[in-house]
Design a protein that fits this description.
seven-stranded mixed β-sheet; single chain; alpha+beta; 399 residues; 28 strands
């Protein structure tokens, strides 16, 4: 179903007075609309959590009648660029006639030996996606996202883990006039709105695919019938010097999303980090728990691969759907200047590929997005929610 009316705009303001920056950024975003705002998202980077809260309250008051969500961050994205570790506010506004927007705030309650997430609204049949901003220090984001299909079915979740320059205890979340110091906030998007996800993990495989033949928790004990560490050493020994440097700077492992595929190549894996090795057990520790029989392949990530991957996925979206009208962008705080030498890279890629559209977001401590039809929490990823006025087609691109 196409949008009856669509307009998207963004704003960015840099400055130590966060309340003024919030006013400026939100005003810029609102002034770019041709109709009333229905959804406003904003992101705040600041040193003092109390000032961040005041700026968020001001931002929420500027769009009465709209659904408004936001969060603190260590960097923000807007006006075609990124700003890292500097006081700044970015904002994004959308006119979405015909859409149904349901904001929510999530909390956790202890029930016996487990936590129960409360506050999620009942999903509707014509819901298309949910945006999620979570405090990584207080909310069990990994568990919630990985099991989201039990409550949300195949509804895509996209967003990121909020953070703050002050770290634990300094994160602030915002939803419809309220400030939250823990939990998660978000909005369900339904009705007459066309949205699709683009999730770029930015890795390329090295070595062969291998079946997991021995595992204990997150320790890979055996790969293809041999000690996992021995298999890793075989892979590394076959690499050239440049690739060995990439392994040393951050080895990854990919878990195949489709066990029945004839081949598993670039883009066919859910990427997880390699956390370390256990020489005594000849094991490799990874950032996930996989079952015996799953197919895995070691991976490396560098700026060139991440750049190519993002542009290819955005190009594919443009070729099928004709670009986009607006987008929310959630980039890992390990990307930006740390990976590309510029904080602007991902924002520029979206605008160069999809057109001069309203784009805003933040640098996240973990990114949420669907890969292979299932929601996951990622690292070093760019998760993009693209709003389009052209109906039809699959709703996701991912690697």
């Amino acid at each position: 179903m196409a949008l009856l009316t669509s307009c998207f705009s963004d704003g960015l303001a840099v400055g130590s007075d966060l309340v003024v920056a919030a006013e400026t950024a939100v005003r810029q975003a609102l002034s770019g609309l041709t109709g009333p705002p229905h959804l406003v998202c904003f992101f705040i980077c600041g040193d003092d959590p109390d000032e961040v809260a005041q700026a968020g309250l001001r931002a929420m008051r500027m769009a009465p009648g709209a659904s408004v969500i936001g969060c603190s961050a260590t960097g923000v994205i807007g006006d075609g660029r990124g700003v890292e570790v500097t006081p700044a506010v970015s904002a994004w506004a959308a006119t979405l006639d015909g859409a149904r927007l349901t904001t929510f705030a999530l909390d956790t309650l202890r029930a016996d030996d487990r936590f129960v997430v409360v506050g999620l609204p009942e999903p509707q049949a014509d819901d298309h996606a949910a945006i999620l901003f979570a405090d990584p220090y207080s909310f069990p984001t990994d568990g919630f996202v990985e099991r989201s299909d039990e409550v949300l079915g195949d509804l895509p979740l996209i967003g990121g883990l909020a953070n703050a320059l002050g770290g634990r205890g300094a994160v602030r979340l915002f939803a419809d006039g309220e400030v939250y110091t823990e939990g998660a906030v978000g909005v369900l998007l339904g009705g007459a709105v066309e949205i699709r996800t683009v999730v770029s993990q930015g890795c390329r495989p090295i070595g062969p695919t291998m079946a997991v033949t021995g595992v204990e928790d997150n320790l890979l004990l055996e790969l293809a019938g041999q000690p996992a560490l021995a298999r890793l050493e075989e892979v590394v020994s076959a690499l050239d010097e440049d690739e060995r440097e990439l392994v040393a700077s951050g080895l990854q492992i990919g878990v195949a999303m489709d066990e029945y595929a004839e081949r598993h190549e670039h883009g066919d894996f859910l990427i997880r980090g390699v956390l370390g090795i256990d020489p005594e057990r000849e094991a490799v520790a990874i950032g996930d728990v996989v079952e015996i029989g799953r197919t895995v392949r070691f991976q490396v990530r560098d700026a060139a691969t991440a750049d190519e991957d993002l542009y290819e996925l955005l190009d594919a979206h443009r070729e099928e759907f004709g670009g986009g009208d607006g987008a929310l962008l959630f980039s890992c705080n390990g990307r930006g200047s740390a990976m590309f030498g510029s904080a602007d890279h991902d924002a520029v890629a979206v605008r160069e590929t999809l057109g001069p559209i309203g784009v805003a977001g933040f640098f996240a401590a973990g990114e949420v997005g669907p890969v292979g039809g299932h929601n996951h929490v990622h690292g070093f990823t760019a998760s993009v929610l693209v709003f389009s006025s052209r109906p039809g087609g699959d709703r996701s691109y991912d690697r």
